[in-house]
Design a protein that fits this description.
heterodimer; A: 230 residues; mainly alpha; MetI-like fold; 0% strand; B: 285 residues; alpha/beta; Rossmann fold; 2 domains; 6-stranded mixed sheet; 4-stranded antiparallel sheet; globular; P-loop_NTPase (chain B); ATP binding (chain B); ABC_ATPase_HisP-typ (chain B)
Chain lengths: 230, 285
């Protein structure tokens, strides 16, 4: 079987696979990870705030997202967001949300739940004495969070945040359910068109493996470099 | 201004132990204490009938005392006697349920009190230093000056480096806390607190987490500060420090102030049996 492999189909489709597919995958991963970390940090702070109602809400959100399959959430947002948008803006017809925007919102909100748990652990890992010292210097709670707790939490949790982003990079392939063409989707299209399923899916697997393997190795190296000396 | 200048001592205190490995520059001189509302001899800290509970457990019972401007008060007592809790009530790091504390005329337990502003005038030094490990020594010294007092980066740095020189650590400005020894970190922590121009300094067992050979360098800085006329409330087991610079000694046991006496009275003839017992234990070796 392997003797029949046609590697030429891979070479000829490279511009399409990377120029469109991989660019989409990386764009979606980068945007969703950035926005997810911001939203996740906010959720973590709310959950740790101890404000009745607020922390319950944050906890409920995180638990809900972590308990649902990602594909379900993708569908859910794709079909619901237009109606929620219409309701929020008072429009009589569903708001047109492109598949990309819908996917981006979904991944951001889904990943935020996971980032929130990482950031919660990060914030809790900072000794209470750090907060006490910053408060004693006259900082407000918000200043303590911004200048003392979060910078340390981010640095301590950077390896976990990046590892979660690598998982997100793989998960973005699920956008095929919205007929979006990411890297895997592009490979799949070529495979169907040319009848070269084995070559294309093998190649896609190799590319995902190499990227994620190298990224993980980089994270490990980074880990030893950013660790804060106490 | 009602504050009176305090003359600097003629000769620097000899170091209580040699520290050749550290090779620090020694303590520089200069005015440290900002003006306050209280005149010399008037109470800078007034603690009135303070009681505190953790749930049903009472940790402080009706504590009352005064710390006058320029006075150095040492708080001692066995572990769990509430001494750390009491000084943490002074800058509201610990809430208390009953009584009142005033610092330079400002009530600590009052809804209208701007707590960050009050705390910025009360320096605090912690047992475990609590320098910010992700920031350089210079940034540790300047961050609160900039964020809280709104000083420019330049002014804050000048003030920070000035104080760093005073604690004899100028050479370490660009290092990070993890690169310094415990004693050096604690001296930076003292400089960080002083950079805010506090009218009073609180010390919460500042030498308890230090290796024995580093205790001396930290106490030297504190003795210097006391001689400069800083109002200080110091929780410590260092009776040598108390003998040298304390005006008064407060002895606490089980959340109560058992003895509140001048240094000479306390060390000469403690009235309560519990204080006598404590002293004989701590001074016998």
């Amino acid at each position: 079987m392997l003797a029949n492999l046609d590697l030429g189909v891979i070479v000829s489709s490279l511009p399409y696979l990377f120029g469109q597919g991989m660019v989409f995958t990386v764009t979606l991963t980068a945007l969703a990870a950035t926005m997810g970390v911001v939203l996740g940090t906010l959720l973590a702070i709310l959950r740790l705030s101890g404000i009745p109602g607020v922390w319950h809400l944050a906890k409920g959100y995180v638990e809900l997202m972590r308990s649902l399959p990602l594909v379900l959430v993708i569908f859910w947002f794709y079909f619901l967001v237009p109606y929620i948008g219409a309701w929020a803006t008072g429009s009589p017809t569903p708001i047109q949300v492109g598949a990309f925007a819908s996917a981006l919102i979904t991944f951001t909100m889904f990943e935020a739940a996971f980032f929130a748990e990482i950031m919660r652990a990060g914030i809790q890992s900072i000794p209470k004495g750090q907060t006490a010292a910053a408060l004693a210097l006259g900082m407000t709670r918000a200043q303590v969070m911004r200048t003392v707790v979060l910078p340390q939490a981010f640095r301590n949790m950077m390896p976990l945040l990046l590892t979660q982003t690598i998982i997100l990079f793989q998960d973005t392939s699920l956008v095929y359910v919205l007929s979006l063409t990411d890297f895997l989707g592009a490979a799949s299209k070529v495979a169907q068109r040319d009848g070269r399923l084995v070559e294309m899916y093998l190649f896609a697997a190799v590319v995902y493996f190499l990227i994620c393997f190298m990224a993980s190795a980089l994270v490990r190296r980074l880990h030893s470099r950013v660790a804060i000396v106490r | 201004m009602t504050s009176t200048p305090i003359p600097a001592p003629d000769a620097p205190e000899p170091h209580s132990g040699p520290d050749p490995a550290l090779a620090d520059e020694g303590l520089a001189k200069g005015p440290l204490i900002p003006p306050s509302k209280a005149a010399s001899g008037e109470p800078m800290i007034a603690i009135d009938g303070v009681s505190k509970w953790y749930g049903a457990f009472q940790v402080l019972t009706d504590c009352t005392t005064r710390v006058s401007k320029g006075e150095v008060v040492v708080v001692c007592g066995p572990s769990g006697s509430g001494k750390s809790t009491l000084i943490k009530c002074v800058n509201a790091l610990e809430p208390f349920q009953k009584g009142q504390i005033s610092v330079d005329g400002t009530k600590v337990k009052d809804r209208s009190t701007n707590l960050p502003k009050l705390r910025s005038r009360v320096g605090m030094v912690f047992q475990h230093f609590e320098l910010f490990p992700h920031l350089s020594i210079t940034d540790n010294l300047t961050i609160a000056q900039r964020k809280v007092l709104g000083r420019s980066g330049e002014d804050a740095k000048r003030r920070g480096l000035d104080l760093l020189a005073r604690v004899g650590l100028s050479a370490h400005a660009e290092k990070f806390p993890g690169q310094l020894s415990g004693g050096q970190q604690q001296r930076v922590a003292i400089a960080r607190a002083l950079a805010m121009n506090p009218v009073v300094m609180l010390f919460d067992e500042p030498t308890s987490a230090l290796d024995p050979e580093m205790v001396g360098e930290v106490l030297d800085v504190m003795v210097e500060l006391a001689r400069d006329g800083m109002t200080m409330m110091v929780v410590t087991h260092e009776m040598g420090f108390a003998r040298k610079v304390a005006d008064r000694v407060i002895f606490m046991d089980r959340g109560e102030i058992v003895e509140d006496a001048t240094k000479d009275d306390f060390f000469g003839q403690p009235r309560s049996p519990r204080a006598q017992q404590f002293l004989s234990k701590i001074l016998s070796h």
